[in-house]
Specification:
- The structure holds three protein chains of three kinds.
- Chain A is α/β, with parallel strands linked by helices.
- Chain A has a single domain, classed as Nucleotidyltransferase, domain 5, CATH 3.30.420.
- Chain A is 38% helix and 26% strand.
- In chain A, strands 1, 2, 3, 4, 5, 6, 7 and 8 form an eight-stranded mixed sheet that branches.
- Chain B has one domain.
- Helix content of chain B is 75%, strand content 1%.
- In chain B, helix 4 runs antiparallel to helix 11 and helix 8 packs parallel to helix 14.
- The two termini of chain B are 35 Å apart.
- Chain C folds into three domains: 114 residues, no CATH class; 116 residues, no CATH class; 159 residues, no CATH class.
- In chain C, a hairpin with a 5-residue loop joins strand 11 and strand 12.
- Classes of the chains: A alpha/beta, B mainly alpha, C alpha+beta.
- Chains in contact: A-B, A-C, B-C.
- At the A-B interface, helix 1 and helix 6 of A face helix 5 and helix 10 of B.
């Protein structure tokens, strides 16, 4: 009798422990990359959902920051939003000064984000290219790995960029820059710390 | 019954090593952020040296009498047996909550934010009670598997973080102050709770050697140093923004496209806390009644759960239960004062007998 | 006490209620005093030709002269009977046991001796390869139902006087005979006595298979998912175990011989390991361990990841899995459980179905479940792959299939409700249960935990024979056993 009661108690606890928290794979909207650019004077965050289709499925969310964009996206546009698989954040070169530091700061506080996801600055052409085909992200990531291999001082992920923001005593640091003149090409891009708000710990 | 069979002291101390190493897994930014790695290394050494001092009385007791405090309390001071049992029960209930609170907090914030922490705690405690009913011997056998898993997890965590090491920017300079030294050393004395477990359960072990606890503490120190090294040099300032830097380290670790090592971290943290609380419950039943006594284990499991629920809703209770100074004082009493008293009592009884 | 034919005949007829298969043949011997004798048999259990040749013909043709009953009885035993298998019974109560075992009980009217002559002639299945333990390089002989045949197979392989068979009877109605088989110099008397006490505690009315007794041999208070009693149908396996101080329990009427104590690591050992090259044996062993883990954990992990941690899937797998699961109407936990149960139903049906229909069932099973259900969108291909992989892996260590099956279901439910965290906790609980389990006082996970480096030579790998033969293994010498290696004095 006692064994039956203890087993029943355990089963009830097991059942009630988790069933409210599942994020089922088939209903989760898993975001694999986010691009940020300026359209019509407004900063627009585009969330690209993971899909097997050739053409990426992106949703535009106008917002002033990544934090705001995530909140709006989850509420209004993308149910079951999951950013745990976010692999790439692309910032257009005309918005990075405005949003980069705050966005990296915000991402660093979120447990679900991977600190080794890539962050890169790019031109508008690259942002347009990523809307056309899923292959673009793969190409960009390959280029980023290559540039890191050739020049270890380039900071390609959240972790290193955050640490560079937080570090005192250095005037600038290097991040990757994706250009799309003829084909996607990655080069180094220097960020002057004076141009952006002082990061306070 | 396997509870009556003596087992290898080496294996027991391996289980205690795993318990001690789990402290750093559940670290919640208790270390001073201004301290450098070399400074922390010295704090580790001093903290663990104090841990060894906490260990000494029970080591001497074991060496001389081949027994532990509850057994000696029954043998030499039967009238004091109940107060000693009450004190140790109090200590282990406090200790269980001290480790349970940050674990459930970490788990709740990182993995299951939608679920009531009390349910998670209840399930955890049910499993720990089951393990505690089996006895220290069985839990130490489980420790062998946990050790292998911990080895794998550490290899994955540290190996996967190697590519993020930035030794150029974060140097080895010595940087810290007195306050930081005290704060950090206090943190590194936390593993001394294993001395209390040893004081309660060493009577069921055989082939004890003095060097075994020394090695236990040395390996604990190495593990702490490795975690702090990687957190410092692989995560850098990023770790300062995080609660549970060890968790972040597991998130950062990757082998090319293969990541997800935080799942191993979660499993290791879970099993480590499971082992600690099971051992605590075992020690309670050993002190209060007989090892593996089901009623005793269930009663104290319910007490722990009730206190946990209370701590969840009343902040002041939570603060008391998470107070490292209080834990240290209780550990001192349980690991040093009581065993020392029984060394003296044992000597007196032997002298009378002679 | 002098035995009277009439009394014994009436007594037996009353006991058997004039059963048609009881045969009591009374005849008068060639003696001056016209002394009578009787042969009692059970129809169908004796070889009539052998009975005639070795018992009746010599008995009837001998001239007993003027001897009295007692002298005639002595003469019959010492000079007349041509059979080598003659047992003197201690009392009339034993008659039933022997005649139901295929013996012919012979006695002289008025004498005080009863003889049981071994003239068994009942039909039994011939020696064949055991289906549950197929090997490539070992013997093809397997145990059969008759006790004596099984004993002979062991005796043939262990040509040492150290091998001993000790008879016991269990089952108040069935009076099933069993033999305890062990090597006298290797076995622990403490272990032997423990085993005997447990068998004596068995108060079953009928014992028709060795499985009836295995629960009596298990230790009290230990987890019941895994069995602490080993089963083997191979004489070579049993002989190998006897050299390690274990005891084999051979039950009449069943080819499955029980071996105690039994450890977890033995489930992954087979005769082929000791015949093949060491590197190949090591590979096969490691593959078995891997298969065990895959079979137990894969469906549960799949469910946990799909339900709670989809981000842990690699990207390429995530896309395929989510798209295939999105097409099906059921949650992934329900899907996995349903396919697992359907698979078990098919497996059971495959076991019971007549061979002539087997092909049709396998086609239906493969097409209906494997193809049509996926195309119809009832189940997803990825789920089916996972369950199929786990099922196949489960058969690599087929003696462990029942606990594997139960654990698999358990982890699926736990993973579906609590994710990876629940699976971790459940694994810890199961491990604790296994660590606590003992088999006649020997820790079930011996060699692994309590860890023994020396014995690891035959756990994940198989060291070469030169190394293995350097140290003999005795179960009573394993660390932390509750079995004393008592002095034989």
């Amino acid at each position: 009798m006692r064994r039956a009661i203890s087993i029943l108690l355990t089963v009830v606890t097991v059942i009630f422990t988790g069933c409210s928290n599942s994020r089922q794979i088939e209903t989760a909207s898993i975001i694999k990359n986010v691009s940020v650019d300026r359209r019509g004077g407004q900063v627009v965050y585009t969330f690209y959902r993971l899909t097997s289709a050739q053409k990426p499925w992106g949703i535009d969310v106008p917002a002033d920051s990544f934090e705001q964009a995530c909140a709006l996206a989850g509420e209004k546009f993308i149910p079951n939003l999951s950013l745990a698989k976010l692999e790439l954040l692309m910032l257009s070169e005309d918005v990075y000064e405005q949003v980069m530091q705050d966005d990296v700061d915000y991402i660093s506080t979120q447990a679900s984000f991977s600190p080794i996801a890539y962050v890169t600055i790019c031109d508008d052409g690259a942002i347009d290219r990523i809307k056309e085909t899923n292959r673009t992200q793969t190409l960009i990531e390959e280029q980023l790995i290559l540039i890191k291999k050739n020049n270890p001082s380039v900071n390609i992920n959240y972790l290193s960029i955050f640490n560079n923001f937080a570090r005192e005593g250095e005037e600038s640091f290097t991040v990757p820059y994706i250009s799309s003149e003829k084909e996607l090409k990655v080069s180094e891009f220097k960020i002057d710390r004076e141009k952006m708000k002082k990061f306070s710990k | 019954m396997q509870t009556e069979v003596k087992f290898s002291s080496k294996r027991f101390l391996l289980a205690l090593l795993l318990c001690a190493c789990s402290v750093i897994l559940l670290q919640n930014n208790n270390l001073s952020p201004n301290a450098s790695f070399s400074f922390n290394a010295i704090c580790i050494a001093s903290g663990l040296a104090i841990c060894f001092l906490f260990f000494l009385p029970s080591l001497i007791l074991k060496k001389r009498t081949d027994s532990d405090v509850p057994t000696l309390a029954r043998r030499y001071t039967p009238k004091l047996r109940i107060p000693v049992a009450i004190f140790y029960s109090l200590y282990f209930v406090y200790g269980a909550l001290y480790f349970l609170l940050p674990y459930i907090d970490m788990f709740h914030t990182k993995y299951f934010p939608g679920v009531t922490p009390c349910l998670i705690t209840l399930l955890m405690l049910i499993c720990c009670a089951y393990a505690a009913c089996k006895g220290v011997n069985v839990i130490s056998r489980f420790g062998i598997f946990l050790f292998l898993f911990a080895l794998l997890t550490n290899i994955l965590m540290f190996g996967g973080s190697l590519s993020e090491l930035d030794l150029g920017h974060y140097g080895f300079e010595f940087r810290g102050d007195v306050n930081s030294f005290v704060q950090n050393t206090l943190y590194f004395v936390t593993p001394s709770f294993i001395a209390v477990i040893f004081a309660c359960c060493s009577g069921v072990t055989r082939n004890f050697r003095f060097r075994q606890p020394v090695f236990t503490l040395i390996f604990t120190g190495l593990k702490y140093a490795a975690v702090i090294f990687f957190v410092r040099f692989a995560l850098g300032d990023y770790a300062g923004r995080q609660t549970y830097p060890a968790f972040v380290l597991s998130r950062v670790a990757h082998f090319g496209p293969f990541a997800g090592i935080e799942s191993f971290y979660l499993a290791l943290a879970t099993m480590s806390v499971f082992m600690i609380i099971s051992l605590f419950l075992c020690c309670i039943s050993r002190g209060a009644c007989t090892e593996g006594n089901r009623k005793c284990v269930i009663i104290f499991t319910v007490i722990i759960f009730a206190l946990y629920v209370t701590a969840t809703y009343i902040n002041s209770v939570k603060e008391i239960l998470s107070n490292p100074v209080l834990l240290l004082l209780l550990t001192f009493a349980a690991a040093v004062m009581l065993p020392a008293a029984y060394i003296f009592v044992g000597r007196k009884s032997n002298a009378k007998g002679n | 006490m002098n035995y009277s034919i009439n009394e014994i005949k009436l007594d037996l007829q009353a006991q058997f209620d004039n059963s048609a298969d009881l045969s009591v043949r009374v005849f008068t011997l060639k003696s001056v005093l016209r002394i009578q004798a009787a042969v009692i048999t059970m129809e169908g259990l004796v070889d009539k030709e052998q009975l005639s040749q070795s018992v009746l013909n010599p008995l009837l043709s001998f001239d007993y002269g003027t001897k009295d009953s007692a002298a005639v009885s002595d003469t019959v035993f010492s000079s007349v009977m041509a059979s080598s298998d003659v047992i003197k019974l201690s009392c009339a109560d034993e008659i039933v046991t022997y005649i139901t075992s295929g013996f012919a009980v012979l006695f002289v009217d008025g004498a005080d001796e009863l003889y049981a002559v071994g003239v068994q002639g009942y039909s039994f299945r011939g020696v064949s390869e055991p289906e549950s333990e197929v090997v490539q390089r070992g013997s093809r002989e397997g145990f059969t139902e008759p006790l004596r045949v099984n004993m002979s197979m062991i005796r043939r392989r262990m040509k040492t006087p150290d091998l001993k068979f000790e008879q016991m009877t269990v089952g108040t109605d069935s009076k099933t005979q069993l033999m305890l088989c062990y090597l006298q110099s290797q076995v622990s008397l403490d272990l032997l006595n423990k085993l005997k006490n447990r068998l004596n505690d068995c108060k079953l009315e009928t014992v028709l298979a060795s499985g009836y007794l295995s629960e009596y041999l298990e230790d009290k208070g230990s987890g019941s998912l895994f069995s602490g009693v080993g089963i083997s149908e191979r004489p070579d396996t049993v002989c190998g175990k006897l050299t390690e101080g274990r005891i084999a329990v051979i039950v009449d009427g069943t080819p499955a011989v029980m071996i105690v104590p039994h450890l977890f690591v033995e489930e992954f050992q087979s005769v082929d390991d000791y015949s093949n090259r060491t590197y190949y044996a090591a590979f096969i062993r490691l593959m078995k361990y891997l298969s065990f883990f895959v079979s137990v954990f894969l469906p549960g992990l799949y469910v946990a990841l799909a339900q709670f941690h989809p981000e842990y899937f690699p990207t390429w797998l995530l896309i395929n899995t989510s798209e295939s699961l999105a097409k099906t109407p059921f949650p992934v936990t329900v899907e996995v459980l349903a396919i697992t149960v359907v698979y078990e139903i098919m497996k059971e049906a495959g076991l019971r179905i007549p061979k002539s229909l087997g092909h049709a069932v396998s086609i239906v099973g493969a097409l209906v479940i494997g193809d049509s259900a996926v195309n119809a969108g009832i189940i997803s291909a990825s789920t089916l792959m996972v369950v199929a992989t786990a099922a196949i892996c489960g058969y690599v260590t087929s003696p462990l299939y029942p606990p594997i099956m139960m654990l698999r279901l358990f982890f699926i439910v736990v993973g579906g409700f609590t994710g990876l965290w629940g699976i971790t906790l459940a694994t810890a609980v199961v491990l604790i249960g296994m660590c606590a389990k003992t088999s006649l006082g020997v820790p079930y996970l011996s060699s692994l935990s309590p860890f023994s480096l020396r014995r690891m030579r035959d756990v994940f790998i198989r060291a070469d024979w030169k190394r293995l033969s350097r140290h003999t293994i005795r179960v009573q010498k394993f660390p932390e056993t509750e079995v004393r290696d008592a002095d034989r004095g």
